Amino acid sequence: MKRVSALSLGQPNAEQVMRGKKTIEYRSMPTKKRERVYIYASKTPADQSVEENR
């Protein structure tokens, strides 16, 4: 079975990426992946997850 990578994004960011309105996503750790990745829309909204991680 082939391994695939996924990027977890909260809403509305997941939809904005899929529609091409959001083209840059900043993360705390860089990646060397330069291939197709799946987008996983997490249950927690984007702004709420940021507040919980502070």
Secondary structure: elements and pairs:
Blueprint (H helix, E strand, L loop, with lengths): L5 E4 L3 H6 L19 E4 L4 H7 L2
Parallel strand pairs: 1-2
General description of the model:
The protein has 54 residues and is α+β, with helices and mostly antiparallel strands. It has one domain (6-52). Helix content is 24%, strand content 15%. It has 2 helices and 2 strands, in the order βαβα. The protein has helices spanning 13-18, 46-52; strands at residues 6-9, 38-41. Strands 1-2 form a two-stranded parallel sheet. The longest helix has 7 residues, at 46-52. The mean pLDDT is 83.
Summarize the structure.
By secondary structure, the protein is α+β, with helices and mostly antiparallel strands. It has helices at residues 13-18, 46-52, and strands at 6-9, 38-41. The protein has a two-stranded parallel ribbon.
Computed structural class: alpha+beta
- Strand coverage percent: 5-15%
Domain unit count: 1
Task: Report how far the terminal alpha carbons are from each other.
Answer: 37 Å
Kindly provide the radius of gyration, computed on alpha-carbon positions and rounded to a whole number of angstroms. 12 Å
Strand order of the largest sheet: 1-2
The major β-sheet equals:
2 strands, parallel
Oligomer: single chain
The unreliable regions are: none
Number of strands: 2
Number of helical regions: 2
| H-E order | EHEH
Percent in helix: 10-25%
Backbone shape: globular
Give the overall pLDDT as a whole number: 83
Please supply descriptive tags for the structure shown above.
alpha+beta; two-stranded parallel sheet; 2 helices
